[in-house]
Amino acid sequence: MNRIFSSFDVADSRSIAIADDVENAPELCVIVPTFNECDNVAILVERLDGVLTGIDWEVVFVDDNSADGTAARVRALGASDRRVRCICRIGRRGLSSACIEGMLSTTATLIAVIDADLQHDETLLPYMRDALVEENADVVVASRYVSSGAADGLASHGRKRLSRLGAELARRLLKSDLADPVSGFFMLRRKLIDGLAPNLSGIGTKILIDVLASSPRPLRVVELPYRFRARHSGESKLDALTGVEYILLLAEKISGGHFPRRFFMFALVGASGVLVNLIVLRLAMLTGKVGFTPAEALGTAAAMTSNFLLNNSLTYRDCRLGGWQAVRGFASFACCCSLGALTSITLARDLYELTGLWVLAGVAGAVVGALLNYALTSIFTWQRGT
Ligand code: GDD
Ligand code: MN
Fold it and tell me: How far is the CA of 160 from the centre of ligand 2 (A)?
């Protein structure tokens, strides 16, 4: 008997196919954020292959278009081993945001996050899986600071002290008793991330804190000790700004996501611009060769330039403009800020005429100018929403 397919049948067969796909999903997906790690990725895959026997696994490298060709190296590995995948992000930077995108790319039941530089002990992964399942935990953290764990691999005494300080700060502010909340090596269930993803900040490097602090319910966390090793090849990507990003992340988490961190950074940079303006104005006047107006124009140009450079490397560190894009960005920044300044001056003048209160007029002009500059440059210079 001939069977006529209805659209219902077609839809039905598709949903069966999707259900099958889910059943075929790997048990574990290992997420590896990478930035210039080309000499480490093959060794990591080899070690994962050795240690994850009996587990259906895949590995997703999330690379921020590293200049050393890390992404190409990962793709070459993936060409002969379908468990190896690569997400290459262009014009983006950031360890946490890379981990989030990697975690959202998989259908695996369990997700682990591990560094590419072999500092994390991959032999712990099967134990982390067992602990997660047997102890019905939400998250299993590989910890340097529980007994028999160690942080020997941290590059210097300074780094060790900073790491402990960071952990202490997080424990106090997040009211958590976790020994190593700044660990970058952990495992959790994908379902947890699916639910939390919209609340994650994605700023900086501390993705575990982001996850723990974004959950509306207290999470059951188990810590397993391990020895943090020295980096295999290449160098650490963490710098002084990593600390600033860490503070901003904590502020955002404590405020329940209401802390306007980008605007805060933009305002700080703006304040530094006022200083630059005054210093250049004073220096130009001191030469005795330029009058007030050209000296002030020079000061304004210097402030605009330093504001652009600082915002590009601090406020918008995760999507910094480079090369010609930076030149175009500077031109649009200058246009937007001129518009902001014009609005600010007009508003202050009108308010002063209306009320006679110069402080009120000045402050209102500055606040509106800053908000307008922020909104306009966010949209036109760095091409993001506000
Ligand atoms: N995609 C991407 N983008 N990956 C990045 C970026 C980035 O901007 N910055 C760093 N990574 C990758 C590195 O390539 C490496 O695989 C991993 O993130 C860790 O970076 P490191 O530069 O090696 O950091 P670390 O050793 O100083 O500190 C790490 O270990 C600590 C202890 O576990 C970080 O993972 C910390 O978050 C962690 O607490
Ligand atoms: Mn490292």
Answer: 13
What percentage of the chain's residues is helix, strand, coil (to nearest 5)?
Answer: 55, 10, 35
φ, ψ of residue 224 to 5 degrees: the values are -115, 135
Burial-class residue 67 by CB neighbours within 10 Å (0-12, 13-18, 19+).
exposed
Flag the least confident range among 4-8, 93-97, 354-358: 4-8
Confidence of residue 10 (pLDDT cuts 50, 70, 90): very low
pTM over 0.85: yes
Q: Is 88 close to ligand 1, i.e. is its CB under 6 Å away?
A: no
First to last CA, the chain: 61
- Nearest-angstrom CA–CA distance, 109 and 25: 8
Reference 34, options 105, 130, 90, 115; nearest CA is 115
Check pocket membership of 64 for ligand 1, CB cut-off 6 A: yes
Beta bridge partners, 227, equal: 150
Q: Give the residue among 155, 226, 154 at the shortest CA–CA distance from 187.
A: 226
Cβ distance 227 to 118 under 8 Å?
A: no
User: Distance (Å, rounded) from C-alpha 164 to C-alpha 100?
Assistant: 25
For ligand 1, pick from 95, 117, 235 the residue to mutate: most ligand atoms within 8 Å of CB: 95
Express each pLDDT in 139-178 by its tens digit.
Answer: 999 998 887 677 777 767 888 888 888 888 888 887 788 9
- Find tokens 């048990």 and name the residue: 27
Q: State in Å: Cα 193 to ligand 2 middle.
A: 24
